[in-house]
Amino acid sequence: MTHNSNKVVIFLGPPGAGKGTQAERLAREHGLVQISTGDILRDHVARGTELGQQVKPIMEAGQLVPDHLLIALIRDRLAAMGPVRVIFDGFPRTQAQAEALDLLLEELGAPVNSVPLLEVPDQTLIDRIVERGRQATARGEQARSDDTEETARKRQQVYREQTQPLIEHYQRRGHLYTVDGVGTMDEVYGRIVSGLK
Ligand code: AP5
Predict the structure, then answer these.
(1) Where along the chain is ATP bound (predicted)?
(2) CA angle 92, 134, 36 (to 5 degrees)
């Protein structure tokens, strides 16, 4: 199947809600490109680029990287696309990022279609993140430096303060729908797909 029309999906939800997991499958099955700002930044850190060196301590502390760096990064990605068929996972995360994205998408004639908001209880989120760190270590891999209980709680607090206000931003525009993020990954995926526009 070929896909020529624009489509923009934005995953919202706290750290550990399953945004990355679900966005990866949705992208694969719907011919969309996943843009995960966390993955892009971790790649820069791993390669030791100038950007990576700049953001490493910020990510380790569970804080947000400055808006202008993220907005420049997203602008470049979108500019390199033909039809804009994209799933954002981890962006936008602040009001300034959301407003910048609105402008970029307007310029490209690619309005937002759907904003699924994954809802998961706070303690389950922490448990998932700590478990991911534990499993990576058990496999002899390097765990994400922010997958500790302390940093997960910090990330949760940052989400509440800086990202949660975006729920209203997208609610006002009629794009947002809530998804129960607890259950098997297939169950959660089915709920997401059934709400897509
Ligand atoms: P980022 O990588 O975006 O991390 P996050 O939002 O904290 O998200 P996670 O990857 O932990 O969670 P997720 O919701 O994607 O869930 P996942 O599918 O992985 O950001 C990291 C850092 O980068 C930020 O703190 C910041 O410093 C910086 N950054 C990134 N974007 C930025 C931006 N726009 N502006 C500024 N700074 C930015 O699942 C989590 C775990 O749960 C996995 O182990 C998974 O297997 C498991 N799981 C998933 N679904 C289920 C399920 N249904 N049942 C049981 N377990 C499940």
Answers:
(1) 16-21, 132, 183
(2) 20
- Ligand 1 pocket test: pick from 11, 64, 187 the residue with the most ligand atoms within 8 Å of its Cβ: 64
Residue 125 Cα to ligand 1 midpoint, Å, equals: 10
Q: What is the pLDDT of residues 24-68, one digit of tens each?
A: 999 999 999 999 999 999 999 999 999 999 999 999 999 999 999
pTM equals 0.97
20: Cβ–Cβ under 8 A, 6 or more apart, which residues?
Answer: 36, 38, 39, 89, 90
For ligand 1, the distance from its centroid to the CA atom of residue 23, given in whole angstroms, is 11
Task: Look up the CATH superfamily of 7-195.
Answer: P-loop containing nucleotide triphosphate hydrolases (3.40.50.300)
Sign of the C-alpha dihedral computed for residues 33, 35, 36 and 40 taken in this order: positive
Contact 90, 19 (CB under 8 A): yes
Domain ranges of the chain: 7-195
Q: How far apart are CA 113 and CA 174, in angstroms?
A: 9
C-alpha–C-alpha distance, residues 55 and 64, integer Å: 9
